[in-house]
Design goal:
homodimer, 420 residues, alpha/beta, 4-stranded antiparallel sheet, globular
Chain lengths: 420, 420
């Protein structure tokens, strides 16, 4: 083996084993030459080849660094790397127009000034004043009447489901409306629950009435009443995930199951979609019975949501900011959906294009078969609902794309679908 | 047998048999009196003796709990009952001197300016650059060598344990060093694991080598090596919770189990205790095998820690702020402990007063029996480790009390212990 290949292998192995970490500086040429008793040229050659193969990066005047992309498991890295797509229509994004950052900054700053409060751990259920504000807010907005004591805050829906599962009898059977909420289904399965799809006789029934399908169908009042009635008769517990209720725009407001039901409904909602995806504050309203069980076991739980954001959010809600924020994004998102649907209808006259009930998503059915890679390559990320009978069904969420760039995104999408 | 002795025996047997678990609330005096058809005074006498014998602990306003292990993991300390105490020596608190709020505010402000990053959800494992920074940090500090890919961020130790449990085979047996970490034990029990105490042949062994007891004993190197060796031979998984390692001051630095061990160690740590209890950012380093399993199932997980705090913390670590912060609190906390111990020794010459190995806690053994209520009434909150032979053992953590007020707190405490 040539000497420079030996040096190459030594450094490469140190990188692959994790001994040298991404971003870390590797020994200088001079130092390595001394370490391994070889010439400067030998090290230089090895380093050039390591650069060429992407293991290290040369930075002028500062030396060589382990490249950020090198990992012992190259496949896993893909999940870590941000998409190359310029336009992401697959959902879960906000855009800069839709959130007043400087306003939120003011609330965070003011929360950080409450240094004394930040010196202790949050109560397991979450900050008391935020739970009071939420109690008031859901009463006004969704007719969900619950004292702060029954409200549990958490850093997202998942930590709340963990708490809920720990309160329920294991070996129960839980039903989900379809297979799309993988995260939630996994939590229940991990706890030993039997997970069924659309089983109205399950002990626990998980529903998101404001977002029944990926394109935001809303559960009609008649079915809500049936569900509430049936679950009460069968003594089953209903988990009402009020996901995306805030965005309902075109349809008539529908009452929450919680307001329709009795003591067997757990109400859940999140602030992430209304504010920013990175803000992790969700909450659930437990039944009286489960609240008692929680209280007896409170020593087992710890709050997951950050205290600063809890304090900030409390004032934000109390000042009525959340209501104006919701009005704002509802207006913006709905305008975007309509605009994108309009452009796509012109560009793709043969495709079937519909706006989902909650006006956040567009369903597009086209007769061409295209792979996800073909969209990505064109700079577009989409959610592919299904391939069927040589037709492709896409669900498009334009919320994360600036209004001014919708036309460009639509054109890129149309180009993929139209080219052969 | 006297009636109150009968009640005493009934409750004691329920505790010893495991029918009542550590931390569990026992029936109220009123309820027990009704249940066993005896007078309130009889129950009260029995409960008082159970307290004196260390079986149960009274908590003001919430009733009686099975003792020894009523406390939760100190990292996840919860202020369940709002304390009226002016001075809280029970732990889990920081004080204003120990954290530079205006500096942290700058990092948060700068994170909030990165609006584009805040518009999307965090990667399930957490922000990539924070994981890089952590990877570098734990390598330098604890010789824990792990690429960012194997690091999972979460909003506290609990969400991380949930992920870990979901990756492990259920029906395994897990061992904890004692019954004190109720939160962690509950998570494993909920997932169907068999939870044992001090079982070296368990499949999963949970240890916090830098905080083995409530007063911060440190696992000696010899035992570390034995544990690493034994676990490797027996093919068991070790969870190393590096809790309070940052505070070790008097003792020699001890290597992490992770650095001593091979591929069977999971390393966990949290930033809450170093920064502010309200900042919820913890992390774990998975083994290669479990990382692969995680990656295959990444769609099942969502990040719980807030994005703003993750971005801020990343720059905070990169700028070397975390190191100076640790030096600072180590200095402050250790000075406080020494000062409080000195004052108490003068005030209570007959008590046995020792500083714990990690200099964060003081162990005080006094010959007087006092109830938690008596301390609370005097404006002091303490952690009562046990009642034994007419002696009370307190664990005192002065970290949350300003230096200038330690003397006053000590006097209040001494007054309770000295008065009859």
């Amino acid at each position: 083996m040539k000497k420079y290949t030996q040096i190459y292998n030594i450094i490469r192995d140190m990188i692959l084993s994790g001994e040298l970490l991404p971003g870390e500086k590797i020994p200088s040429v001079r130092k390595a030459a001394a370490n391994y008793s070889v010439s400067l040229t030998t090290v230089q050659s090895a380093y050039f080849e390591l650069c060429a193969d992407g293991y290290i990066i040369a930075q002028s005047k500062s030396g060589y660094f382990v490249s950020g992309n090198v990992h012992s498991h190259p496949d896993e890295e893909q999940a870590d790397v941000q998409s190359n797509a310029i336009y992401d229509l697959s959902g879960g994004l906000a855009d800069e127009e839709s959130f007043d950052f400087s306003l939120w900054q003011k609330y965070i700053k003011s929360a950080l000034r409450q240094s004394e409060r930040l010196l202790s751990y949050s109560q397991p259920k979450g900050e008391y004043d935020l739970r009071c504000a939420i109690s008031q807010y859901i009463k006004e907005k969704r007719n969900v009447i619950a004292p702060p004591d029954r409200i549990i805050i958490g850093a997202g829906i998942l930590p709340l489901l963990h708490i809920l599962c720990s309160l329920l009898d294991k070996k129960l059977c839980v039903s989900f409306p379809d297979k799309s909420f993988v995260l939630g289904m996994s939590v229940f399965a991990d706890y030993g629950f039997d997970v069924h799809i659309r089983d109205k006789d399950a002990d626990v029934i998980y529903v998101s009435p404001s977002h029944m399908t990926r394109w935001g169908d809303v559960m009609p009042i008649k079915r809500r009443l049936e569900l509430v009635d049936y679950s009460r008769k069968h003594n089953s517990l209903v988990i009402e995930d009020d996901y995306e209720n805030e965005f309902l725009y075109n349809v008539k407001p529908t009452p929450s199951l919680y307001a329709l039901g009795k003591d067997n409904i757990i109400y859940m909602s999140s602030f992430s979609a209304m504010l920013l995806p990175g803000i992790r504050v969700s909450f659930m309203v437990l039944t009286k019975e489960l609240t008692e069980k929680y209280n007896q076991n409170a020593f087992r739980y710890a709050q997951t949501a950050g205290k600063t954001e809890q304090i900030a959010l409390c004032s934000y809600i109390r000042d009525g900011r959340i209501k104006s924020q919701i009005r704002k994004i509802r207006r913006i998102y709905s305008a975007k959906t309509k605009k994108l649907a309009g452009i796509l209808k012109e560009l793709l006259p043969e495709a079937k294009i519909e706006i989902g009930e909650n006006t956040l998503q567009i369903i597009l059915v086209a007769k061409w078969n295209k792979s996800p890679e073909e969209f990505e390559k064109a700079g577009i990320r989409v959610f592919i609902e299904k391939y069927e009978n040589n037709r492709i069904t896409l669900v498009l969420s334009p919320s994360g794309i600036p209004m001014a760039e919708l036309e460009k995104a639509a054109r890129l999408l149309a180009d993929v679908l139209l080219c052969k």
